[in-house]
Design a protein that fits this description.
- The complex is a heterotetramer, with two copies of chain A and two copies of chain B.
- Chain A is an alpha/beta fold.
- Chain A contains eight helices and 15 strands.
- A ten-stranded mixed beta sheet of chain A has the order 4-3-2-1-5-10-12-13-14-15, with helices on both faces. In chain A, strands 7-6-11 form a three-stranded mixed beta sheet, with no helix packed on it.
- By secondary structure, chain B is an alpha/beta fold.
- Chain B has two domains: 226 residues, Glutaconate Coenzyme A-transferase; 52 residues, no CATH class.
- The longest helix of chain B has 13 residues.
- The chains are: A alpha/beta, B alpha/beta.
- The interface between A and B is large, with 52 and 61 residues.
Chain lengths: 252, 307, 307, 252
């Protein structure tokens, strides 16, 4: 194994999805670190939005347990309300949004509400938070998940956050543009492909292989012709990551 | 002006009723009025419909204590710990009681409170299109945009008007005028939408402090029903410029509330066995003092002089 | 971050086009960007649709100068003087050209800009029910509230999305980050609804001044297209904490613009014969200095420290 | 003539329409002074709203040419936006609202837009501003006008601000509660009466008489049975007025 953790690889892969100058709806944990890495490397003009009502340019100086913690308030570019920041999504002014999820299906629909469906769920999850809005309204949705067969399923029991719905034109018919651009897991990166917009295997992380990834996926995962290994973090990317993650939280 | 400074116990007893729709914090992770959560549990108020975009552990506590039988919100759990165990138990196994959930996204509950705040008959929006929130919460309506020539679906969100909103603020005067700074989540919309507003003020100041900066006022004091002086009334959540987050407290609650028995023990230790928030602060002792923000990062000077 | 500090002449030339929908001030009586009004007249931009709740004399000047052929607003005139003579001449006798008016009330134009700002498909409201504004402006639609069991009429207001909003602020940095304080009218909604925002900053400050108080930011600088350093760019209107109102200037304009000839003379004296706003300030001389607010009424100190 | 001007009497009459503890949408000129007189006499807990985004308890210290002038900002209870303050109207939280007007009719409808109607008006007036909203949504509307036959008309050419529309139930049918409670002119006070809600003569100011007032009214003005002379300002009311109007602007 190389000199980085799987979480560090996921963070770097997520950072690469952010382009310079883009406006990014940033979630907590991995995405906020990914945003910081992007700013310190290839995207020095990116802007980060937080649904509690914060806009930042540079990452916060200090440990954040939640996005509303004092270090995220100090030196922010804007401290306002949820409606004011989240309306930028509905206004079409957010390039990329990050969300996580408990369950995702082959069209990128995500469930964070009811495992087992509405009627009599086996697990009641916390719910959408801002995820449904971010998934519906970001120009590109980026999902971050653990890669297990019970999580990557044929069809989610409940669509909290819409991906391509039933595939093809169904998302457009529901009145939505955008859609999932990448699903970054701890084993691989999946991307939509073809007129169906079904998620395909785009790259496999070092130490993992196609058969294993397909075996851990709940649908018949197709492989993109130009499949490659996920490029490992560069020295520059790791340096940026370690500058943000001073305590090595993601190295464990 | 009317004096509104009262004890938290009296404020809850006077203004909150069983069955009320209540906002307990709407700032997302900061400024959750846990002091009020605890007082509601001590007074054993029942059948609350708790409204919040993200409630953090406050709603989980109210559910476990038997006070909350309905939730109108986008997310219920424990931000540090993930799942809310009382929430799961109530929803999945009706322990200690059945729970009704009115599903929202953060933006849809924002639109609902905004419509309530501004007296709008409803709010049309788009960002829960495609989501099953439209199926599990039948209060929304799907319609066509009458201004669009091509077919364009929109979601109509009915207004939310809470009976009471309980909100922490950094400082207030005894007439209910106050300042709030840092990110606001849905605090403003909740305060304007609610019939009654109860403030937990970290500090009570002279009226001149508040009128020195009318741009930092959330809503004017005449719209406030009661002000309670409760320092760190939002512990363990943070308050901008005043208190850091006690993250480990959330984790401890998460671990202890994993079992019903563990939750009841936690509740006894931190709520039921304590008479009020002063006793809670005393019990926290040095732990609370370590969270106090003592540094200085002052806002740039701003002049309101008229001549 | 991207440097956005440019000369007002260049900002208008680059960002405003003939035929644009433009907001020139939305703070009602304060903060009308007259420096930009004058620069637009000097550059002879045509066919503007000027959007404002209350434009004060700015729209009247643009109409008289031949730049504005459409108005979307609630009130056009001269707040000190009453009627706007150019407005009347254009509407009643098509001098210097025909004028189209899209009637609004203050609240309906607020709802229209809010809908534009928040990406809402439209905004339902009630407070222009019964008014002939619904007849003279056919853009509104009358509908039934689908959430009401009894018949309940509502007005649907389509969103307004200006091409450009030109807004004075007290202080800004060179990247477009800024502070605004005092009453805001529709400044926030206009800034968020517009495709482009041009700021007239009374003062340019270091970025640290702005980040010291993120709660006083109107919109973050990344949403701003250009910042122009124009002290007193809102003269003769007032700016909270900075400049008093030059009421007599409005009265003089009102008297002089009573006749078309008088207006043209006024325009030549105060706009066309001057190269820029620096020359205008110099012409005002001591008169402007007397309007400068020199007293101190500082806002109470506010801490954003994190630890 | 008594020791007060007609404007001073109008201000005092307007002040008396404000009850203690009420929330009042205050216009400029006469109403703002009336609000101040009310606060200093019988209504110390009244609250004043200004559409530019200001809420005040006490009146401003210093000359106001417009409601947004610096003295009205200094020491305000709230400095916010137009939508935030005006929504209190739509939310049903404003007890009384003051507006002026160029033309009013027997049902209290006010025109500040088009004299002569929409098509080809003889005079294009400035328009509604916030008047339509205040008239539609205040619990009680108070209008202040000069009393001339061409201004008090049978039917306005254009309803900028709705009164009782066509009288009777027509305002309710349009979806509105509230309605005009008093029209204070420089000659008299008119109030709605009867199931039609037509404006009747309620009191006549000192120095004026019923015939003159009826002659200056564009419809067949009916007189209330308990018609009286408008009570002159009390010493207390005049003292309060002079405390606010230090320069004697309204005494001229």
């Amino acid at each position: 194994m190389a000199d980085y953790s799987i979480q560090e690889l996921m963070i770097v892969a997520a950072a690469r999805e952010i382009r310079d100058g883009e406006v990014v709806f940033v979630g907590m944990r991995l995405p906020i670190t990914a945003y910081g890495v992007a700013r310190l490397t290839h995207a020095p003009n990116a802007v980060g939005l937080f649904e509690c009502g914060i806009v930042r340019y540079g990452p916060a100086d200090g440990m954040l347990y939640t996005m509303g913690d004092p270090p995220n308030q100090l030196g922010a570019a804007w401290a306002t309300g949820l409606v004011q920041v989240m309306s930028l999504l509905q206004r079409g002014r957010v390039d990329a949004g990050f969300i996580g999820g408990a369950e995702i299906d082959r069209f990128g629909n995500i469930n964070t509400s009811y495992i087992g469906g509405i009627g009599n769920p086996t697990i009641k999850l916390p719910g959408s938070g801002g995820a449904a809005d971010i998934a519906a309204m970001s120009k590109r949705l980026l999902a971050i998940m653990n890669h297990e067969k019970r999580r990557l399923v044929q069809r989610v029991d409940y669509v909290t956050s819409p991906g391509y719905l039933d595939g093809g034109e169904s998302r457009k018919k529901a009145g939505l543009d955008g859609g999932p651009a990448a699903v970054i897991t701890d084993r691989a990166i999946l991307r939509p492909h073809g007129s169906d917009n079904e998620l395909h295997l785009a790259s496999v992380h070092e130490g993992h292989d196609v058969d294993e990834v397909r075996g851990q996926t709940g649908w018949d995962l197709k492989v993109l012709p130009d499949l490659d290994e996920t490029p490992p973090p560069t020295a520059e990317e790791l340096a940026a990551l370690h500058e943000i993650d001073k305590d090595g939280f993601w190295r464990r | 002006m009317i004096e509104k400074l009262v004890d938290l116990r009296d404020a809850i007893a006077e203004h909150l009723r069983a069955g009320d729709k209540a906002v307990l914090g709407a700032c997302l992770e900061p400024d959750v009025p846990f002091a009020a959560t605890h007082e509601i549990i001590r007074q054993d108020l029942r059948d609350l419909n708790v409204i919040a975009p993200i409630s953090d552990a406050s709603t989980d506590m109210l559910i476990g204590a038997g006070c909350c039988t309905e939730v109108t919100g986008a997310w219920v759990g424990n931000v540090s710990g993930g799942l809310g165990h009382n929430y799961r138990r109530a929803y999945e196994t009706a322990e200690p009681h059945k729970l009704t959930v009115h599903d929202h996204s953060n933006f849809s509950i924002g639109m609902a409170l905004m419509a309530g705040a501004y007296g709008m008959p409803y709010a049309p929006m788009r960002s829960i299109l495609g989501s099953d929130i439209l199926r599990s919460n039948p209060e929304f309506r799907l319609a066509e945009n009458p201004f669009s020539e091509a077919a364009e679906p929109v979601v109509l969100v009915p207004p939310l008007k809470p009976n009471v909103a309980i909100l922490p603020v950094q400082r207030a005067d005894r007439f209910g005028n106050h300042h709030h700074w840092g990110s606001r989540g849905l605090v403003f919309e909740a305060a304007m939408a609610a019939e009654k507003v109860i403030l937990l003020a970290d500090e009570i100041v002279e009226p001149e402090v508040i009128t020195s900066d009318p741009s930092r006022v959330l809503i004017p004091g005449y719209l406030v029903s009661a002000v309670c002086h409760v320092p760190a009334g939002m512990h363990p959540s943070p308050m901008t410029g005043r208190w850091q987050r006690d993250n480990e407290f959330f984790n401890e609650y998460h671990r202890q509330s994993r079992s019903r028995q563990g939750f009841l023990e936690w509740l006894d230790e931190w709520v039921l066995s304590l008479p009020d928030h002063a006793a809670y602060r005393e019990k926290l002792g040095a732990r609370l003092e370590r969270l106090r923000i003592v540094g200085a990062a002052p806002a740039a000077e701003t002049n309101f002089a008229a001549a």
